[in-house]
Amino acid sequence: MIHVAIMIKSWQMIPKIISGEKTIESRWYKTKCEAFGRVNAGDTVYFKNSGEPVSLKTGVVRVLEFSDLNQKKIKNILKKFGEDIGMSRSNPFSKVRNKKYCILVFLKNPQKIKPFNINKKGFGFARAWLSIKNISQIKISQCF
Question: Whole-angstrom Cα distance, residue 137 to residue 96?
Answer without folding.
Answer: 32
